[in-house]
Amino acid sequence: MYLGVIAVADLGSNSFKLELAQIKSGRPVTTETLKESVRLGGGITKSGMLSKSAMKRGWDALSKFGSRLRGFDPHSVKIIATQTLRTAKNADEFLRQAEEQLGFPIEVISGREEAELTYLGVHQVFPIEDETNLVIDIGGASTELVVGKGAQILDVSSECVGSVSWTKKYFSTGELTTARFKKAVDAAEVLFKKDRARFKKYRWQLVFGSSGIISAVSLINKASGYTTSGAITPESLTAVYESCIAAKHIKELRLPGLKEDRRDILAGGLSALIALMRVFEIQQIAAVSGATRRGALKTLIDDQSDHPIDRTAGLREIQQRYDVDVTHAKRIAKIGNYLLDGLALDERAPVARMIDDAAALHEIGFAVSRINMPRHSAYILENLN
Questions:
Q1: Contact, 237 vs 274, CB < 8 A?
Q2: Which of these, 313, 271, 300, lies nearest to 138 by C-alpha position?
Q3: Mean pLDDT over residues 120-131, rounded?
């Protein structure tokens, strides 16, 4: 059992990501991130079914996640799935085996819930209380829009426009032409215009973007010198678009800052982004990475107040797993607390708890290596909350 460590997995239409975090002062501090490029959304057939190859890619990725999550308390893990698994006709078939691979249930969240988590994650990074903000999340198969003030969400929308689905629909041959971009942008504008009047009445001051494709464009901007901060503006977006046209084909895209796993879906995501900036007359977008997972981590921390982890049971489980000599551990704890009694401390309890933990688990370092055992044991203890 991992005490004080929580985990969130986001099963997106493009990639699956697992984020582990420690809880410090009531906030998640990321300690590890795993990412698998699955392209689940790209595996949707014309009949609306997930292909066997796409499902296998997903199951293989989740098998790795399951191995990493082994030993976690169920109340410390949250697995969410988004647009592709909301709409695929055989999603249940995928989810049954996926949950077996993970060892934890998967929650297929609605577009509204996804938007709310993203907004909550952005608010964790930028806790702005006195201004109205618009948050955009262009995923692999859907785009979420949410406007709010401070921590309060005012309005939410989800449209079926995504970097994977739009690339598959409008750039299937890989050709990057003005005509193809026009069709993709025009189609996205039709969907986003349904939300324009409703959203613009809120008169937001700041716009944040959270998604892999927005982060990719931000990195291109910075690496190319289009904007010093990586912020996305109409001018910088035009420069990225013109670079795509100059490349002529997806396989020839060699833009500064563009990662390999984003190259094949850049055109679809860029089309959605161009449409958004036009429809909502956006002048600047600040990129925030991993906001949906940040929001999910925050809700997990809040939920844990209702499901506190049994620390004693957790320590006992770790001792059993690594064959700790419990009698000897208790003897060490007794000696440590005896010495502690001789010290004049304002707060004895936190130090006593640290001594008890150290005594209970001090031998575990042997499981890592007999060389530098105390250092390995200290690492384990530091990761207890």
A1: yes
A2: 271
A3: 88
Cβ proximity of 201 and 230 under 8 Å:
no
Question: pTM of the prediction?
Answer: 0.74
Of 3.10.20.880, 3.30.420.40, 3.10.620.30, 3.40.605.10, which CATH number belongs to 5-109? 3.30.420.40
pLDDT value of position 356: 79
Angle between helices 234-247 and 266-279 (to 10 degrees): 150
pLDDT tens figures, 13-72: 889 999 999 888 778 889 999 999 998 988 999 899 999 999 999 999 999 999 999 988
**Which three-class secondary structure state does DSSP give residue 158?**
strand
CA atoms within 13 A on the CB side of 236: 25
**Domain over 127-287 is classified CATH 1.10.510.10:** no
Residue pair 35/15 in contact (Cβ under 8 Å)? The answer is yes
Q: 334-355 burial string, b = 16+ CB within 10 Å, else e?
A: eebeeeeeeeeeeeeeeebeeb
> How far apart are the C-alpha atoms of 6 and 21, rounded to whole Å?
5
b or e along 187-221 (b: 16 or more beta carbons within 10 Å of the residue's beta carbon)? bbbebbeebeeebeeeebeebbbbbbbbbbbbbbb
